[in-house]
Write a structure and sequence with these properties.
- It is a single chain.
- This protein is mainly alpha-helical.
- The chain has one domain.
- Helices cover 73% and strands 0% of the residues.
- It is built from four helices and no strands.
- Helix 1 packs across helix 2, helix 1 runs parallel beside helix 4 and helix 2 crosses helix 4.
- The longest helix has 16 residues.
- It starts with 7 loop residues before the first helix and ends with a helix.
């Protein structure tokens, strides 16, 4: 695993949360991919970049859930 890799337990945590809110299937999978993409590319607000990975993933997950409900 490289240093840029996201720990699997974090990804499982994000995907589990998205499935609980959005249900199983494509919407949860698409949102999980979007969250991971934002996390890996640091396409997030500047204030969030210095925070621990778990917090960053939680904030990005909530953001994806809210975006799916618009």
């Amino acid at each position: 695993m490289t240093s840029a890799a996201v720990p699997l337990d974090h990804l499982t945590h994000v995907f589990g949360r998205l499935q609980r809110v959005l249900g199983t299937g494509a919407p949860a999978e698409d949102a999980a991919v979007a969250v991971v993409h934002r996390f890996r590319t640091t396409a997030e607000p500047a204030w969030l970049r210095g925070r621990p990975d778990a917090l960053r993933l939680d904030v990005l997950t909530v953001s994806a859930i809210l975006a799916s409900r618009r």
